[in-house]
Amino acid sequence: MAKAKAPACDNCYFGKNMLCALNLGRPCPTYRPADRGLKPERQLAFVFRAERTRAVYAFPQPR
Question: What's the rounded Cα separation, in Å, for the pair 25 and 8?
Fold first, then answer.
């Protein structure tokens, strides 16, 4: 597994493409690695569970 680079303005997508308007001296909240471009982080897939066949609540169902 490759070790991830520490976030820095030098390897930020916005800094490399001269799109950064901030001069903070540290990575800003909009930091994106330049090698990945603007592609967002991969998110977990949501999988629905099968519907329950029995009620698991101790309270009676409303009528």
Answer: 9
